[in-house]
Amino acid sequence: YEDPNGANCQCLSTPCLPPGRNGLPSTVSFLLQLLSVICVFVGEKTWRCYSGAAEAARRGCTTLAQRAFTMASMRRLHILLALTVVFCITWVSQYVGAVSAMSAGEAAKPPHIIFIVADDLGFHDVGFRGTRIKTPNLDGLAKDGVILEQYYVQPVCSPSRASFMTGRYPFRYGLQHYVLQGGHPYGLNLNETLLPQKLKEAGYMTHAIGKWHLGMCSWMHTPTFRGFDSYFGFYGGGEDYYTHKHGGFDMRRDKSPNCGEGCSESVYDAAGKYSTILFADEAVNVIQQHDATKPLFLYLPFQAVHAPDEVPDSYVEPYMKTISDKKRRTFAGMLSALDEGVGNVTKALMAKGMWDDVLLVFSTDNGGPIKGSSRCHICGDNTGANNYPLRGGKHTLWEGGVRGTALVHGWNVSTASAHRYGLMHAVDWFPTFLEAAGVDPGLPKGFILDGISQWRMISENSNSSRTNIVLNIDPLHNVAGPMKQGGGGDAAYREGDWKIVVGDPGPPDIWSVNPSGAGDDTRQPTPHKRVPLYVTVNERNTTLELFNIPQDERELRDIESQNEQLVKAMLARLMEIEKDAVPPLFSFGPADPKSSPSLFNNTWTPWTDRC
What we know:
- This protein is of the alpha/beta class and 611 residues long.
- 30% of the residues lie in helices and 14% in strands.
- The chain has helices at 26-59, 64-108, 136-143, 157-166, 195-199, 275-289, 313-316, 326-351, 399-402, 429-437, 455-460, 564-578, and strands at 112-118, 146-148, 151-152, 205-211, 230-234, 252-254, 265-266, 296-301, 358-364, 406-410, 419-420, 424-425, 468-474, 490-495, 498-502, 533-537, 540-548.
- Strands 7-6-5-4-8-1-9-10-2-11 form a ten-stranded mixed β-sheet, covered by helices on one side. Strands 13-14-15-17-16 form a five-stranded antiparallel β-sheet, with helices on one face. Strands 3-12 form a two-stranded parallel ribbon.
- The chain is globular, with a radius of gyration of 31 Å.
């Protein structure tokens, strides 16, 4: 029976199926059961009539009365046989029709999409990677879902978030160089079509909770003007987990579409409350209030595990004896708090009766920031992340900076294999989600969609539809080096098994070691020494390296000298792609003085329409 809220079907002494989901609608079920009873009754009468007639024939019909009885019996037999055929055909056709209608309805019903993003999560941080950090909820989702092993993101967060939302590489709209800076008048271009705007075409209710970091110079750049029905979180890129300040207070509730001045509220009473818990609780509240008959898109980009390294002591205590490094121990607590939040969200979806229709994706936005080399002046954002066995970390084009952890769980996801080894990039979520939702991913004329739907790879365990990835094209000097205009420019490009790195991939260029390993796993490897190859790219002299990633995912051996023709071909393709790149919007100047939080009650607030 269904409970008063219509959320659960509880089986009593006999099996039952909830109408409209795994069973037929209740009215159709009743009619089919009635027809089956009639079929049985008519069939039983037919058999008795046939048996009587057959017995009369066996004994011999010599009298007129017997012959009359036999003829009447045969007439009744024909009538009853005809009725039996009619009733049974009707029963079968009704059953097949009802099942077909139900199947068509189920196939047409789009999934609820839950897109959870961790900030600055390393490749070797979650429990299912074999670490000492306890992430039981994420591990459970991975166990019953799929893990993406060749999944790429951008080196820092704003470009990755823009990739998620647009399905387009950041070099196409000027966000390829570093992150959006607070107080500077630019953001993700307003002519870009975002994922929630497309999902609206399929009737989705769209909500965003957490870190935005795609622009706040004008209200038009904020989430509810970009396709979200509501938003709760902070517009900027980072802040204190408790005070929610970074030069000014930043925690907003935008409660309706196009919620700008006079509608958007600063949530000052959030001060003192840990953001990971705040965001998870808000997500639970959105789910509880959602009309489950409508598809839901919930975008949940947590602040964790970004710097500063802060977390309630209760999350750190379980690691006091197992993790000796204090920074790594605090990081473990931060990740455990995030994992608990993910668990609370999944429990809320189950309690609401939505879980069977949920497509859940968990992704990082970039590689984990690690302790830097001596030439990395911005590597102080390390909170204890680990990218073992990869080289480099956040800010770099090494695998440790752009190879991300991601999993997919739920609606129509094939678990025939727990791992997917096909190429996939952050831009692919845009068309992948839209295909699952039954929405045409087409963009306005003149806008190139770089994303390729990976729905078949995820749902059917087929091969990836992608053969290459532009990891970045940045004409400015790598941001982890001298922060000045000019320089040689950097780029990286993956094609099949091969990856070329043009220019300086950026520090830190060291390797993460296994924090729970032994022997060689705990020591820095020795890369193969080489003579750098100098090439000319668009009249710029720079260096180039080539790696075979499946054979050398640690990027120890530069083998460009052994594959000159391949290098030339890949470089030519990269240079052709670069023709579509626009100049970075990144500003090297000071912040706009009109943006100062001191002008808005010490609160970060959109301040201009000219951006």
